[in-house]
Amino acid sequence: MTVLLVGLLAIYMAGIILPPCFPGRPRIQNLVAHGLATGAGLVGIVLGLAGLLVPEPWTVSAESTIPFLSFAIRLDPLASFFVLTISLVGLAASIFALGYVTEFYGRSSIAAMGSLFNGFLLSMTLVVMADNGFLFLIVWELMALLSYFLVVTEHEKAEVRYAGLFYLIMAHVGTAFIVLTFLIFFQEAGSFSFEAFRHPEQPLPEGMRTLAFLMALVGFGAKAGIVPLHVWLPYAHPAAPSHISALMSGVMIKTAIYALLRVYFDFLGGQFPWWWGFVVLLVGTTSALLGVMYALMENDLKRLLAFSSVENVGIILLGIGAGMIFQSYGLKEFAALGLLAGLYHTINHAMFKGLLFMGAGSLLYAAHTRNMEEYGGLLRRMPWTGLFFLVGAVSISALPLANGFVSEWLVFQTLFLSLKLPALFLKLMLPIAAALLALTGVLALVCFAKAFGMSFLALPRSSHARHAKEVPIAMRIGMGFLAVWCVGLGLAPMIVVPLLNRITGPLTGVSISDKVLALDGWALAPVNVQFSSISPPMLAAMLIACGLLGLFLAFMFGGRLVTRSHKTWGCGINLSSRTEYTATGFVQPIKRVFSTIYQPTVKLETEFLEESRYFAKRRRFEFHIEPVFQKYLYDPLVDFFVGMADRLRILQAGSLHLYLAYIFVTLVVLLLFAV
Amino acid sequence: MSLFSIDVGSQLVDLGSALLLLTCFAIVAQRRLSACVDLFVLQSVFLALTASLVAFLTGIHHIYVAAALTIVVKAVIIPRILKQVIEHVNVKRELEMNVNVPTGLLICGALVILAFFITQPIIPLGFLLTRDSLAIALAIVLIGFFMMIARKKAVTQVIGFLVMENGLFLGATAAAYGMPLIVELGVFFDLLVGTLIIGIYSHRLQDAFDSVDTSKLTTLKE
Amino acid sequence: MSSWPLVLLVAAPVIAGLGSLVVQQRRAIEVLQCAQAGAMLAAAALVAGQIIAAGEASVGGFLQVDALSAWLDLIIGFVGSSGTLYAVGYVGEELDRAHVSLKRYSQFFCLFDMYLASMLLAVNLENIAIMWIAIEGSTLSAALLIGFDRSKAALEAGWKYVILSSVGIALALFGTILVYYSSEHILGVSNEALRWSQLYRVAEKLDPVAIKVAFIFALIGYGTKAGVAPMHTWLPDAHAEAPTPVSAMLSANMLTVAVYAILRFKAVTDRSVGPEFAGKLIVGLALLSLAVSAIFILVQRDYKRLFAYSSIEHIGIALLGFGIGGLGVFAGAWHLMNHALAKSTAFYGAGLVFLRHDHKSLDRVTGLLEQMPVAGTAILVAGVALAGLPPFGLFISEVLIVAGSYTIRPEVAYVFLALLALAFATLLYQVLRMVLGEPGEAGTALGRQCRIFTSAAVGINIVALGTIGLRVPPGLETLLASILKIFGVGMEAPR
Amino acid sequence: MMLQAITLVVAQAIVLLAISPFLVGLIRKVKARFQCRRGAGVFQPYADLAKLFRKQPVISTTTSWIFTATPYILFASTLSAGLLVPTFISQTPMNFAGNIIALVYLLALGTFFLILAGLDAGSAFGGMGSSREAIVASLTEPAMILSIFAIALTAGSTNLSTIVHKTALMEGIVTDPSPHLMALAALCIVALAETGRVPVDNPATHLELTMIHEAMVLEYSGRYLALVEWAAGLKLAVFLTLIANVFAPWGIATTLTPAAMGIGLVTYILKIAGLAMLIGTLECMFAKLRLFRVTDLLGVAFILALLGLVFFYILRG
Questions:
Q1: CB contact under 8 A, A645 and C295
Q2: Which of A445, A458, A497, D167 is surrounded by the fewest CB atoms within 10 Å?
Q3: Which chains border D (3 or more CB–CB pairs < 8 Å)?
């Protein structure tokens, strides 16, 4: 392990230091930086697996000269799992980047991008490995800072700068809450070491525990992008270069999930009242639903993906929240199931969100725009990208045979198990959450049907799309790698579940893998196979068999007939991209049905011909959906501060007498009251 | 020591301090600039007398030096510099104030009370000889400070500052039986240089703004 | 224990200053200044080394160095020398552009060195009254430096500075007198009654009320020089209008020296009346400073004023650390050093921008990273450090201070964190819009010599800032440990 | 054992495939009768399928492989979904392979690709159909999940066979029917929406104002259309089976004796035929709703399912 760890750090450090050593040679810089990152990714995967498999948590630490700070590393199953996830996506992103950053030759410094990229990956890895609160804070802030610099790679664009700043500030505010969380433990433990957090001399008072719970939820929630702290996400993730977006959406926000589990189940020992779990559940449901709803309305592909990250974090929190509720009632097996579902969805989301962002990157690379309305018909021009994107879309829509299906299924089962709960309130709430999850799921399906359909199907909607070419091989390999994982994780839960069980076991105190894997691994069951079960391999077999049956029927009856191809009948008009359904039009009914949430504002301008008002020369239609949280939560806050500051300028009015008066008054007041 | 018994001496010292305080009030009440300077000279003389009285009574001789310096610096050199500045910048004889005279006097009275109130618990540990000088010193410092706020012209602010210095000096000599000589010398040197620099500045201000009404200096602000 | 490094430390600037006034010849002055910078740095290092080794050093009971003084020696010595290099580049450029005559060029360096000398003297003195004299000396030399280029704004700033800080210093003197007044009964009417070491020894016997009043006067007096709100009002004007090398020295050194003076008084007060009294006052004023600076940074339109307000903020943070005591003292000292480095770096950058564009308006400066890489990097690195982000020491000290204050009074920690977040947001908002984006107006390019010297200064600072970012070098660690002892705290920090 | 399982699965597949066109024909017949027409014979759909399979398919030039793959995927997913539902025997061998959620998501898989296919042709009709299908599907899903869960509660399982088997054996059958009835009502509405019947959609029209499913498949022809139609029929069969066997598992074979199976098969056919005729009747009684009125209907379904849940818990204490 030591060798692996040192190797990992060494390669990343090399990746940070070396690229600037080849000034003016972007190709070499690119190869060095991302090549090394690829290597590090491989090492990280091995390290993560090793950490998952070793019986005892593996620790190493180096003292520092700063009080309370020690460079302590701890690889328990939880940490290792996230190391594994980060490394997997990191590996794919590095390979993808080899091709993708060629876009930036001559525009931005490849050396800087490469170094920052390695640094970002390193900081994320360290975040999940850190075993000391102080160290955690340092790497956490570094992660935010480095990702900020990556986000503003194209800082000549104003909106990119805005996105970056917004992100940085939100991240820092979050950190402030995290600091408070740690301080609550620190006060009892008298140290920043996580070991001391786990076993303080005397247990925390109840009020303090609750405070810690809320602080952690806000602090880490800001990073995870839970509603209403999600607003930075749809700005920052699209602004970054796509391989960075893949990392940020795929794994960076997961570090927050890691930290939440760490705090709730490790530091607080999984001892909490039921309403904690309910709060998490509530947050999860809200984030999932609102996230997907806003995603649905986006025509900017990367913003759509960013919003869908909010949704998936919500789904993860649904699993965890349900687990927490069960935990609080001592139903440990179900609790473990909830966590397992959450973790399963974590890695799944990492895979397909990484894949989708890379796909979006490829589209950007090929068509030079992020607006779906200007794509179209790309499946014929970019078959591989299209295929991989489809796999990602199927996975994220939780459709069978892909990984999203398995984890979402597990979440559903956890919620259904609420019938074992004593409290009527929860008995009712969890199924409703399940229903809303179903709504989320199908909206996600629609969302990605739109994303794929508008981008890849029918006729090209712009000259960009018409001249698009398939992307370089490196990018395709990066995407293919993750696509394979999406399918693999979906078909082989019998391999994944035991690994995840090694995490949930210590956290909840029960091992459930043999119960979850019923019928010697063929079926997946929520602890008791009587309640329900699925068997992904069997489903796959069925689907394939039925598909073959369909083919057989088709060709048995009329196999000799060759298909004739003819252009689509457009009611007499020649079909053009103008006659196609637009992305905006596609979701219009949904927008109308849920108008209470979207509060859409529609503007329709019509220019008429001079001759007659019966003939329109041109019409202009635009609609916007209300960014509710920004309008009613964030903007007022900013306005308040700016306004206050403006009013307080008067303090510094420039008059010497006034200044002297300040001193005089202070003096007199202190003399009167302080003595 | 044979001539006076201690309490008579302390009476005299207190008398000196009181005179200083009175001159303060006079300066506050005074509307004419040159008169302010003259009053300051008078105050400095009183200060020197009190100091030398203390020196005589206690037999701490380097206070004599301090007293002599006071005469030289504050009663001769600095007033000359000030007069020059006044000549150069030909300020109006009338002073503008932020606070009118009666209010100013009232505030000064309040400040004196404050000074006594604060120093009350400390005075007992003072030397028998210089009972209330500490309180008076503090009062003078505060009044000088107040003058700087109340008066608009640069020169009068300088005078306020110098009055503060006098208060400090009274505190140092009368109340605390004088700082060590080197300190006294240093303080006086700094004082001299400071006044010079302030003089230079008011010259330049005059050249730049053709007025030394410091309440007009408000271009630098938020 | 040889005493020459200490003497050299104080003497080098004096000699160099007088020398530059005499020779009146550019190259000579440059050589002289560079030598001075080197000598000062070496001497500071040596002195610190002696303290680390022996704990104390003194020259005839007049100059007396303990850990705290050595800490200040290091700060002033290091930043002073890099500042001297920078000044050579900066003022040299102005000379090339014929903004200043050779005469005023040499005058500048004379004043500049005297200023450094008086500060170095102030922190190495044993006698509180003489320390007062030295600090007053620095005030006066600074007054002349601030008004150096005789624009109206500079004059106004200088005038405000000289009046306000003279008043402040006068109040500080009254505080000193009060200490003397109460100590001379125990130590006799003599120099003894003004020596730190003696005062610490007999502090318990001193009259508490007198000490309290004395501390209030000292706090407000020296607080005025340290730019503690609400006595800070001179600071932005002075920093903005002074020639930039001077602004850097004001921020990095003079404020620090004023804090040092306050600390000396605090040490006496704590021994006499317990740490709560001084702690309360300092914490209150510190938080006020934070609030004021955070707000004014937000509305700032002038990049030099911007950094000036950020100085108010960081002095406030450091004082907060000292105010809460315990490891806060460690953090405070650490904060002072890192802030000195970061802030001087920031001003170096700002100065280059000013030389190029000849205006101080934030809104008209963009894309520095592309247009002036050195200045851009300097401002970016400094901005990140000053915002309190790792891998820089300010992050460490801020976390430690929050932790310390939380264990004592949680509400202080809450307010502190909130204000920190606000200051973070406002500062980065301003800094980032300077360094990022497309370059704006072209401006006039800088001369080669100027570029070399200033880049050297910036480089030195950034390297230092990086190296002490996440680790306390062992020597400094021992220094800090003995500083903690001065404030009656042991280094029994659990790791 | 293995062999038996396979044969049962195949048998079930055959039954479903065989019966689904019949159901369509039956509904058409009933409607014709209500409209005082003789109408085509109930076995007409078989002929239609055969004819379509033999016709030469025409594919739009604008389309991609998605378009040609969709019918097979649709067919496969629907049939697989059918295999999860117990038809004439209560314990389908495929029980373990997936529960009700799996069924829902298998159908969703079909819907997903159908939507894509609708977009792929590039005509406005297809887009319109897809977009409407999207809204209907998204409103149906929550109600479906809740109603299924309300039923699952009684049997303590979400595996269909387990539910059906237990109910058939009178195990854990509800003493009070109210939750069941509400769930049933909800599920019926869901079924109508999912299978594209009046009042949500009208399979008998090609009027662009009203059509949803038909608009999506407008570009299909030949064997592709055959598969799509068949899949639609299968979907109908699946939902009818679901309703029939979950709420009225009478006569279903709980053992694998030939006799039992025979009875099971007959009763099964009777049950779903009855349901089909019921649907036909309903279609004649109601008019199709405007698209944005469908939301109200499905909202009602959701509330009903929720009430079913509440009642269950309250009555069970």
A1: yes
A2: A497
A3: A
Whole-number pLDDT of residue B91? 60
Instruction: Specify the range with the lowest mean pLDDT, choosing from A116-130, B69-83, C9-23.
Output: B69-83
Confidence of residue B212 (pLDDT cuts 50, 70, 90): low
Token readout for C383 is: 């901005």
Decide which of C210 and B205 is more confident: C210
pLDDT for B2 beyond 70: no
Classify residue A452: in a domain, yes or no.
yes
Asked if residue B128 belongs to a domain, the reply is: yes
Taking 70 as the pLDDT cut, the residues of chain A under it are none
Which residue segment(s) compose the domain that C215 sits in?
Answer: 4-486
Q: Is residue B221 part of a domain?
A: no
Write the residue in A654, A667, A675 that is nearest to B221 by C-beta.
A654
Q: Is the peptide bond before B79 cis (omega within 30 degrees of 0)?
A: no
Residues in chain A within 8 Å Cβ distance of B221: 649, 652-654
Instruction: Tell me if D185 sits within 8 A of D298, measured CB to CB.
Output: no
pLDDT value, residue B1: 43
Report yes or no on A299 lying in a domain.
yes
Would you say residue C495 lies in a domain? no
DSSP H helices in D156-177: 160-168
* Residue A447 located in a structural domain: yes
Low-confidence ranges of chain D (pLDDT < 50): none
Please list, in sequence order, all residues whose beta carbon lies within 8 angstroms of the beta carbon of residue A10, skipping any fewer than 6 positions away: none
B216 to chain A nearest CA, in Å? 8
Tell me whether residues B141 and C174 touch, CB distance under 8 A. yes
Question: What's the domain count of chain A?
Answer: 2
Compute the half-sphere exposure of residue C159: CA atoms within 13 Å on the CB side of its CA: 35
How many Å apart are CA A336 and CA D260, to the nearest integer?
Answer: 42
Assess whether pLDDT exceeds 70 at residue C334.
Answer: yes
- Residue C51: C-alpha distances to residues C6, C64, C107, D165 (Å): 11, 11, 35, 88
- Please state the domain count of chain B: 1
Range of the domain at A644: 629-673
Interatomic CA distance for residues A349 and A89, integer angstroms = 11
Predicted confidence at residue A603, as pLDDT, reads 84
Tell me whether residue C494 is in a domain: no
pLDDT range class, residue B204, cuts 50, 70, 90: confident
Domain boundaries, chain D: 8-316
In 3D space, the residue among A379, A344, A343, A346 whose CA is nearest the CA of residue A363 turns out to be A379
The pLDDT confidence band at residue C494, using thresholds 50, 70 and 90, is very low
Domain interval for residue B174: 6-212
C492 has pLDDT over 60: no
* Number of structural domains in chain C: 1
Last residue of one domain, picked from the residues A508, A535, A552: A552
Which residue blocks in A368-470 are alpha helix, DSSP H? 378-381, 383-396, 403-416, 424-456, 463-466
The CA dihedral of C143, C148, C154, C158, to the nearest 10 degrees, is 10
Domain match, A372 and A481 both: yes
Provide the shortest C-alpha distance from residue B53 to chain A (in Å): 31
Q: Do D64 and A551 touch (CB under 8 A)?
A: no
Are C129 and B180 inside 8 Å of each other by CB? yes
Query: What is the C-alpha to C-alpha distance for residues A219 and A144, in angstroms, rounded to an integer?
Result: 13
> Between these two residues, B183 and A481, which has the higher pLDDT value?
A481
Q: How many angstroms separate the first and last alpha carbons of chain C?
A: 34
pLDDT in tens, B139-163: 999 999 999 998 887 788 888 999 9
Q: Same domain for A498 and A638? A: no
One domain, residues A436 and A311: yes
Q: Do C421 and A172 touch (CB under 8 A)?
A: yes
Which amino acid, C364?
A: R
pLDDT surpasses 70 at B128: no
B203 pLDDT above the threshold of 90? no
